[in-house]
Amino acid sequence: MNNHKAASILILLIVGLMGFGVHKLRAKAVAARDAANTTKSEAEQAEQQRKIAEIKLKTLDAKTAELRKIYTEWIPHFESFRSSRAGEQRITDIVREGDVFLLSQRFNYQEIDKGDLISHALVANLVVEDDYSKTLNWLGKLEESIPSCRIKQCKIERGTRGNNIHMELTVQVPVLKSALSSN
What we know:
It is a single chain. The protein is about 60% helix and about 25% strand. By secondary structure, it is α+β, with helices and mostly antiparallel strands. Strands 1-2-4-3 form a 4-stranded antiparallel beta sheet. Helix 2 packs antiparallel against helix 3. Residues about 180-183 have low confidence and may be disordered.
C-alpha cells in the first residue's frame, strides 16, 4: 500500500470520526433542547398554578375579611380566661362589685369538645337573691363584663321579701388552649 492510499484511508477515517462526533453532539443538543422545552413548559405551568393560587388567596382573603375582623375583636375577651382560676376570680369580682346578695356559688371545670380551640369551660352555678332591678342590672353587668360567657340557665322566681327576686344562674365561661397566644 502506498502513501497515497494510506493517506486517503486516514482522511476517510478522520472524516468518519468527525461525522460520528457531529452526530453525537447533535443528538446531545437535541436532547438538551427537548429538556429545555420541557423545563420551560413546566415553569409556565408552575407560573399559571401560582397565579391561580394567588387569585384563590385573594378571593379567600376577601371572603374572610369580616370573619378575621370579628376574630381580632373577640380575641382579647377570650384571652383573659386562660385558666379556670381567672374565670372564678372575674366572676367573684363581678359579684362583689354588683353588691348583690349571693346565696351560693359553685364552680366546676367542664370539657366541651376535646379537639376544639375552646375545649374546656368554667361553669359557675350562682344563686342570687336581692332587689329586682338591682339583680337584673347586675346580670346585665355580668354579660357586659364577660362578653364571651354563655348563660346556660337563668331561673327567676319571686323572692322571700317584697321586691326581691330569687335567681338561679348557670354561666359558662370558655377557657382557651394556650396555643392561641402564638396566632
